[in-house]
Specification:
The structure is a homodimer. In chain A, about 55% of the residues are buried. Chain A has 11 helices and 14 strands. In chain A, strands 8-9-10-7-11-12-13-14 form an 8-stranded mixed sheet. A 6-stranded parallel sheet of chain A has the order 3-2-1-4-5-6, sandwiched between helices. The first copy, chain A, starts with a helix and ends in a 6-residue tail after the last helix. The first copy, chain A, is about 35% helix and about 20% strand. By secondary structure, chain A is of the alpha/beta class. Chain A has 2 domains: about 180 residues, Rossmann fold; about 150 residues, Dihydrodipicolinate Reductase, domain 2.
Chain lengths: ~375, ~375
């Protein structure tokens, strides 16, 4: 690896670090051992991804359900002695098989368990949204700095090849100067989900899935939004929404003049997509999910020439995105490099989420 | 026609009047004669549409270019004596072959020529946007009322079968309760277009093409928006934009809790589309243009059943929408019925456009 620190930082800013740290054909010196904190749905994706990895392995679990943890431990060859309850979690400090943790808990617990893990000397890969307030994000970054451990936020699409190709196409000027982006992401949430309570989710669909549209506008433009407007409603008074919005639409303005319109919901199954409109053409990526990401583009390299067409699907299946993500963090740990999506990336989204909520008359945190 | 006045009004509110006034298989007692005011691009669509009609015919032209007018007059069998300059236009009063006019002028001239036509005793079909201010719209409605003539705004999609089917599907509950809508419409404008000057266009892409997204959210929900937010930018300082925005993104909130996110531009070629997200499924219509309107929908009639899929294209070619539109107005004139898209429809859009511009810090009119 002969890339300079300066070049690396530049690539990082473009969200292209994953490309700069290719994994294929390189055998890491050892596997990084992960402790999974929280054994819900997202943990399942992480664990299945790591199980397929050559650079990462699962070495410990933290759970409030001993039975479930033992069943999963057996599945992933984790010794029973490396199963911890939340109360005894700080003992992970003494487990040398654990290099890093993955925080898969409800949003409102991200800060506490990231900080406890940092104090136990373990690197932290934390699910997004990073936390439920800007102050918590800042405390997490600070705690990890003090403990001299790495903090990465699980923005898995920053490591997904079709997304990286899309970003590179835009940076290379394929569709000209970007003028506008629109995006939606949302789903019809079931009753009794922690995500639709203010106490555990910290917010509604914006925090949970709208964050994909927000983050996309940032990696697509390479800029930070400066102006925010929003409207939010909660029309379905059916008990599902405890202090959080059901529907939220928002706009943003970026320094170069790009405007974006986005919408998210917990009340309906939405297309997850973004469309990017440039002076020379347009592109669209469908699906923010774990597979079936699909890119279509149409642009003219010169006026009055026939348009260049792109129609490409990433054929990789779930949990490949999670393998790539864990292996990126493992490489960063092994080679002492900063992750492409550090705590600061999560903090920026949280600052913007606060601005969007404020515009909608909602107070965050 | 045995539909009651009350039923008719109700259908009108649902945008379904065109369905209530079927043209197929009914021979109108006579053709309504139209005078085309302004012979630009949109006039060409109107004229070609009317040429294919059984209920409407072109009987006069108003133009500042005598040569062009004579060429077009010959094409549509309009007598030379029925060609008027703008100065002598008030003489249309004396031409019995003219029942109605179609105002195809730049936006800032809609009010003047609608009012002059009304005073000349002619019914008015006026292009959208209806005018460039709320006050002008009110003056137009008032002038037409005083003159006892009909005023219709050319919202051609209110007469387009796939759009009407889409509205009916939503009203019938196919996709459940609507939660959110997103929509875009825009294009990369050429230099020296009247549309990108404040003096003639009255506004930027919102007035010209964003109005399709705005109007769609209204016919799709059957409601009027109550809250508006917006951001606008004009990044391309290349002389094309004279006092109007280049890019504009906006959100709206509706009484039932529907939120919408929309975006429009004069800086890039956009997909013209809307997506409607409901509790039971979603639907999308692509293309606000003159042909190739395409509906896709996917919804569940009961939980856990396989989704019902719709994939349908309106095979009609341009200028069919203009034929339908003119013939609707002709029928309204013959049968003394109110048009489905009267001046009040244009006024409502203009009031909302004013609110959107105000939210973006732009003053209208």
């Amino acid at each position: 690896m002969t890339i300079s620190r300066r070049e690396f930082s530049k690539l990082g800013a473009l969200g292209l670090v994953a490309q700069a740290l290719p994994l294929v054909g390189q055998t890491p010196s050892r596997k990084i051992g992960y402790c999974i904190i929280g054994l819900g749905r997202i943990a399942d994706h992480h664990m299945r991804g790591i199980a397929q990895s050559s650079g990462s392995t699962i070495t410990a679990l933290v759970s409030g359900h001993r039975d479930k943890a033992e069943r999963i431990a057996a599945q992933y060859n984790v010794p029973k002695t490396s199963i911890y309850s939340y109360e005894e979690m700080d003992r992970i400090r003494d487990n040398k098989a654990i290099d890093a943790v993955i925080v898969c808990l409800p949003n409102s617990m991200h800060a506490e368990y990231t900080i406890r893990s940092a104090k136990a000397g373990k690197h932290v890969l934390c699910e997004k949204p990073m936390a439920i307030s800007v102050a918590e994000c800042e405390q997490m970054i600070s705690a990890c700095k003090v403990a001299n451990i790495k903090l990465m936020i699980a923005y898995r699409l920053h490591y997904e090849p079709l997304t990286l190709k899309t970003i590179k196409m835009i940076r290379d000027g394929a569709i000209g100067k970007v003028e506008a982006i629109d995006s939606s992401n949302g789903f019809n949430i079931a009753p009794n989900e922690w995500r639709s309570t203010k106490a555990l989710g910290g917010g509604g669909p914006l925090m949970d899935v709208g964050i994909y549209s927000l983050n996309a506008t940032r990696y697509l433009t390479g800029e930070e939004p400066t102006d925010f407007t929003a409207v939010a409603t909660t029309p379905d008074n059916d008990g599902r929404f405890q202090g959080v919005e059901e529907n939220l639409a928002w706009t943003m303005k970026f320094p170069s003049g790009v405007v974006t319109s986005c919408v998210t919901t917990y009340g309906a199954n939405m297309d997850g997509y973004y469309k990017v409109y440039g002076t020379k053409g347009k592109l669209e990526v469908d699906e923010f999910g774990y597979e079936n990401l699909h890119l279509t583009a149409s642009y003219r390299t010169a006026p009055k020439t026939p348009p260049t067409k792109v129609d490409e699907t990433n054929p990789e299946r779930d949990p490949k995105q999670f393998t790539r993500q864990a292996d990126h963090f493992s490489r960063c740990i092994l080679e002492n490099q900063p992750p492409s999506t550090p705590g600061e990336e999560g903090l920026k989204d949280m600052q913007h989420i606060r601005s969007i909520y404020k515009a909608a008359g909602i107070t965050l945190g």
